[in-house]
Amino acid sequence: MSSQDIPEENLPAEQDHAHGAVGVADEKNPFADPGLPPHEHRVQDIDERAAKRSERAVAFLFTLSMLATVGFIASYVAIPADKSIFVFPIGHLSALNFALGLTLGTALFTIGAGAVHWARTLMSDVEVADERHPIAASPEVRAKVHADFRQGAKESAMGRRKLIRNTLFGAVALVPLSGVVLLRDLGPLPEDKLRHTLWAKGKLLVNMNTNEPLRPSDVAVGSLTFAKPEGLEEHDEDFQNEIAKAALMIVRLQPDNIKDKRELEWSHEGIVAYSKICTHVGCPISLYEQQTHHVLCPCHQSTFDLSDGARVIFGPAGHALPQLRIGVNDEGYLQALGDFEEPVGPAFWERG
């Protein structure tokens, strides 16, 4: 259907869009303004049934966007990260990545397609040209802008086309949820992992250098030995994360030199085991002074007294090193009698 098939009285009223003098090009004025061509009405302008069809098409696209966003979230939750599928002719792909890309792309594309179809079929398409004006906005210009905005809002049919308006709001409101869901991939939730290590009752103390379980006779007075939990190997995928919490330093003192009562109870024949991780910023402690029984963190010189509960005697560390309670098993090997009773390393979240 075209505008020629509609009686003149049914056509929308033409608006005055004069934009300066209209002239005819000739030898004296070859660049005369020819003016705008006659406006051709769209079928939606003259047939409400066609306008309704366009409205339903736009609403369908916005609704499809909402469903795609829901599909994005469902795919993220339901599809395993290691699942793969075959897509011809691309080949094998990650099922999760394929689903996320397809659903998010559909959600964004249908919002754009719906907006374009809305603008091309239902919003006003009358060309308007204005004379150039000074950059500084006069009160008249501001009034005109406000009037144009109100006119544009009216011509966009936002108030009258409630189905489009509501589905657009729904689509635009749901799409950001895709980004919110992706925040989950910033990393695994810590839960209470920072409060526990691999040490547990019965775990043998394994020498970091020889990879052999330690006996009390292996630890000489005045020596510094580093140990790890039994079963933790360097080729393990999570070795670095686990050793960063479970690294242990072992020192043998004369029992008479141990000042702290609990430290003596948790030791075995003067052998004490403390976390190797400095309580300042988590650097590994590696310097030991035999005469004073002090250990020093090389990063910021925090100093701890191993003969007095590993309390801080110098530097920025905020609290003593956690001690691991140890003993020997039936075969005579040193073993842990539990985990550290407090989190190792820096005072995260005020140790709350």
From TrEMBL:
Subcellular location(s) of the protein: Cell membrane
InterPro entries assigned: QcrA_N, Rieske_2Fe-2S, Rieske_2Fe-2S_sf, Rieske_Fe-S_prot
Keyword match Acetylation: no
Bilayer topology annotation: Multi-pass membrane protein
Domain of life, source organism: Bacteria
Domain Rieske residue range list: 240-335
Biased composition (Basic and acidic residues): 14-30
Keywords assigned by UniProt, alphabetized: 2Fe-2S, Cell membrane, Disulfide bond, Electron transport, Iron, Iron-sulfur, Membrane, Metal-binding, Oxidoreductase, Respiratory chain, Transmembrane, Transmembrane helix, Transport
One Pfam family named in its UniProt record: QcrA_N
Predominant subcellular localization, coarse grouping: membrane
GO molecular function annotation: 2 iron, 2 sulfur cluster binding; metal ion binding; monooxygenase activity; oxidoreductase activity, acting on paired donors, with incorporation or reduction of molecular oxygen
SUPFAM superfamilies the record matches: ISP domain
Similarity comment text for this entry: Belongs to the Rieske iron-sulfur protein family.
Role played: Iron-sulfur subunit of the cytochrome bc1 complex, an essential component of the respiratory electron transport chain required for ATP synthesis. The bc1 complex catalyzes the oxidation of menaquinol and the reduction of cytochrome c in the respiratory chain. The bc1 complex operates through a Q-cycle mechanism that couples electron transfer to generation of the proton gradient that drives ATP synthesis.
Quaternary state and interactors: The cytochrome bc1 complex is composed of a cytochrome b (QcrB), the Rieske iron-sulfur protein (QcrA) and a diheme cytochrome c (QcrC) subunit.
UniProt protein name: Cytochrome bc1 complex Rieske iron-sulfur subunit
Organism: Streptomyces humidus
Gene: qcrA
